[in-house]
Amino acid sequence: MYEETRSGGQTGKDPGFLRSTDGIFKGIQFILSLLLVIFVSTTHYWSVAGAGFVGFANFAAWFSFITLLMSGVIYYFRLYNGACLGRLPWRKVELNYALGSAILHFIGMIACSITASSYSHNGLFIASAIFSVFVMLSFLVYAFIIFRGKDPRSVPTRPIDSV
Q1: Which parts of the chain are beta strand (E)?
Q2: Taking a C-beta distance cutoff of 8 angstroms, is the pair 94, 37 a contact?
Q3: Are 61 and 30 in contact (CB under 8 A)?
Q4: What residues does the MARVEL domain cover (predicted)?
Q5: H or E segment to which residue 102 belongs
Q6: Is pLDDT larger for residue 140 or for residue 149?
Q7: What's the whole-model pTM score?
Q8: Where are the domains of the chain?
Q9: Partner of 104 for a Cys bridge, out of 38, 57, 60, 141, CB 3.0 to 4.6 A?
């Protein structure tokens, strides 16, 4: 079931990931990003004059959705122990990803809020702005947990001088 790699780790299924802190956070972020994709896509922002900025919120939602799906696969199958991915500093990668995604969703929230204040039929724009805030907060909490010293799921810590 497990396969040894050059980096000394094992690859294979990790069913405990879904019950771990990282798995729960990634699951919450995934569901919130999916809801945000649905809300932003149903606003039909491309047919409303002056609502083109909401396209950035759509980009941020799809970016988070797809990258969280890829991240979930990497962690569930322990691909971070593989030959190429085993060399990455996963704590820094996850921290930068969470902070970058939070910034993207903050900008998307601003775009949805500005658009909602300009139009009378603004219910979906408001919902998109609110869910952008929820996704942004989930990424910020996850970044704070990683910043406080928790390593991402099962990733072995390496000395700083090893490359």
Answers
A1: 3-4, 10-11
A2: no
A3: no
A4: 17-151
A5: helix 90-118
A6: 140
A7: 0.82
A8: 12-147
A9: 60
